[in-house]
Design brief:
The complex is a heterodimer.
Chain A (H helix, E strand, L loop, with lengths): L1 H6 L1 H23 L5 H22 L8 H27 L2 H8 L2 H12 L6 H18 L1
Helix pairs in contact in A: 4-5, 5-7
Chain B lengths: L3 H26 L5 H22 L8 H27 L2 H8 L2 H12 L6 H25 L3
Helix pairs in contact in B: 2-3, 5-6
The chains are: A mainly alpha, B mainly alpha.
């Protein structure tokens, strides 16, 4: 059973992430029915830490103190937070459907960066899949 | 007076750029830190950022038991997703991961349909169908690429 799961981990891991992020995207709507976004964000962070802290027991030899790695994680976390904040500002001033559609296009930036800096290449079918994914997200956001 | 572009177009475009970079950075970080270490650090930094944001709002934190529980669940699901994403990034390309995980609105749409009773119009149904097709195509194309001698 575990061997079978491991054999398909290349597909199952990103799929599990996708399903969980689906829940992550869905739940705030219910949470924000009773609280403001900034409060929801704080409890969300507490939930994240509640999962992250037990991980310390599974990490042998303590947390790595690689300065470059930690600085990059710090940068990524800061960017994510500012992005969420920008999203809320945009939602406050603009039409929800348009804002959601524009911001749903972030994978284009990620794919472009992977192409430029990591020299990742896609086959014709993978380009088609990426295009279909963008159209799908566009249709869902609109 | 601020134009409409200043109030929502620029923040939207900025969010796209920042989220794009934030999705790209973990691939670089994996050269320095293992996935679980990244998860611990990023959640700690995210919490610090959120506390700083509360300072901006004058520490006016609301509490509603049901809402807080749901918000904590948001953090739990997001962090679990993060762990799977980081582990997958070790062996898969960034592009493959980004394309598959970018389809999370398909799951969110289906959950909203099932649990919130939101309607699933023709446009959304087409979006879900295309999303599933894209997922299958991405995985099939990857398998074909990795097969052979």
């Amino acid at each position: 059973m575990i061997a079978k799961l491991k054999a398909h981990s290349n597909f199952l891991l990103p799929l599990a992430a996708m399903v969980l992020w689906g829940g992550w995207a869905f739940l705030p709507k219910m949470a924000m029915q009773s609280m403001q976004p900034n409060s929801v964000l704080l409890y969300e962070a507490a939930g994240g830490v509640a999962v992250a802290l037990p991980l310390l027991f599974f990490i042998r030899g303590g947390l790595s103190r690689d300065k470059k790695g930690i600085s990059l994680v710090f940068l990524g976390s800061g960017l994510s937070l500012v992005a969420i904040f920008c999203y809320y500002i945009a939602l406050r001033g603009g039409p929800v459907a348009t804002v959601a559609t524009i911001t749903a296009m972030y994978p284009v930036v990620g794919v472009a960066l992977a192409r430029i800096f990591l020299k990742e290449k896609l086959t014709r079918w993978q380009w088609l899949a990426a295009l279909l994914a963008m159209v799908s997200v566009y249709l869902l956001a609109g | 007076m601020l134009s409409s572009q200043t109030t929502w177009v620029y923040p939207s475009v900025l969010a796209v750029a920042l989220w794009g970079v934030a999705a790209f950075l973990p691939k670089l970080v994996l050269r320095q830190l293992p996935p679980l270490h990244m998860t611990v650090y990023s959640n700690f930094f995210f919490l610090l950022g959120c506390v700083a944001l509360q300072a901006f709002y004058g520490f006016h934190v609301q509490f509603n038991a049901h809402g807080a529980l749901l918000a904590v669940l948001v953090g739990v699901t997001g962090t679990l997703a993060q762990i799977f994403y980081y582990i997958s990034l070790r062996t898969n390309s960034l592009t493959y991961n980004i394309v598959i995980t970018s389809l999370y609105p398909v799951v969110a749409t289906l959950l909203a349909y099932l649990f919130l009773g939101e309607t699933l119009g023709a446009r959304q149904a087409a979006g879900v169908a295309l999303g599933i097709l894209s997922l299958l195509l991405m995985v099939k194309a990857r398998d074909r690429k990795t097969e052979g001698p």
